[in-house]
Structures are given as C-alpha cells and as structure tokens.
Amino acid sequence: xxxxFTKSVVYNFDTVTSTxxxxxxxxxxxxxxxxxxLFQTEGKGRxxxxxxxxxxxxLYLSIGIRHNEVLTAEEIASFQAIGALSVKYALLKCCxxxxxxxxxxxxxxxxxxxxxxxxxxLVEHGFAGSFCSxxxxxxxxxxxxxxxxxxxxxxxxxxxxxxxQSDINKFQEIVLNEFSKIINLxxxxxxxxxxxxxxxxxxxxxxxxxxxxxxxxxxLIDGRLELINTLNNEKKIIDNGxxxxxxxx
Length: 249
What we know:
Blueprint: E1 9-16, H1 19-26, E2 32-40, E3 58-66, H2 73-94, E4 100-103, E5 107-112, E6 114-128, E7 131-142, H3 168-182, H4 187-198, E8 204-207, E9 213-219, E10 225-229, E11 235-238, E12 244-245
Parallel strand pairs: 1-2
Antiparallel strand pairs: 2-3, 3-7, 4-5, 5-6, 6-7, 8-9, 8-12, 9-10, 10-11
Helix pairs in contact: 2-3, 2-4
C-alpha cells in the first residue's frame, strides 16, 4: 500500500502532554496526521521512561497513520525501522561529517568522543481485536538542547553540542521527507536497510540480569533479536532494546 503524505493533516501545538497522545486522538478523523509541539509535559520513552527536553529547543514530532487494510505482523513491526531510518538519514543530511548509529531497535546515537544518545523513537499501535487500526511513530531529537537531566547528562547530546546547528523546522521537514520515502518501500527493503544500519550481527551482547555471554545471531522479520549463548549455543529471543548492552563501535 502507498501512503500519500501530501494529504496529511498537520497540527502544531505550543505545549502538549505528549505528541503521541494528541496523535492518538486526532488519527480517528484523519488518514495521516502529523503532530508537533514546542514542549511536552509528559514526553514518553519506552517502558514508561520519560523523554526530557526544554521548551522550543528540540524536535517533538508524532506521525499517526490510520489503517484501512489488514497489515501483516512484519508490516506492523516495520514502523520502528521506518522511524529509526528516517531520523538517521535526516541527521546524516544535516551533519554529513558525523557518525550516527542505530542502537537496537530504534535509538539514535552519535559519536562525540563516546557514542551518546541524540534521538529516541517510540512506536505505538492501536488494535481492534487482531486488526491494527493505527500506528503512531513518535520522534524526539535533541536539536538545540544544552541542559540535560542529571541522571543522563553524561550519556546524551544534541546537534548544538556537537557543533551541528540546525533550524528545527527545516530539520523536521527533512525527517518527514525521509519518512515519506521509506514508508513507501516494500517491507523487505525496509527490513534489510534497518538490519544493515543496526550493525549488530556477530557482536557480543550482554543481557541485563543474566550472567551468560551472547552473540547477536539474527534479526527476525518481526523485529525481535535472536541471540546465541556462547557457552551452550542455546537461543535467546529479545524484543526489548533496553534489556541489552553492546558496543556501537
């Protein structure tokens, strides 16, 4: 199926709880909805985490898509890849001399001495029984942010802090342009691009609260990660990137 972003409806807000929340409400009456805000009072990350950011300094963007046709499990899973690829490609266009990496499944890191997080993507789906009625891709990118929460200050950065200044509106336009191109590729193309950009296969992976060592063996078509235990060759399936650690280098 093809998605025509020329027919998307755009809502720009000053302050919202989160752009994903508003996209969820607005998608009911729209095929494609784009929601932006200058500030989020309850910005969301994965697993009940919060996304911190100050007023007017960052990209807070959600893209909501209402589905009229039945999606396969692979098509549903592809939305996290679409979000991650869109942001990485947009960042590379703005900062071609920097090294950006996608950390499984869809956080974006930039090399600034060590690799530091610069973007996070939160994908949410709505279901009526087994039918996926909508998908929302929430994108947060640190653009002109200079102040970070003390708990994360050593592990995050922004375009401004890596000397890659960008106008937020122009950067948003680039992200949306990349998104509209990638979503209209076929699912296998999206999956292949994503796996290549993840660059995790063959790397040593540590699973939190687990004493074994694993090697990343493959990314399954539904987006889950298959690990192999180096001691006994048993397989372990991961669907939560926050539960693993590995080197992006």
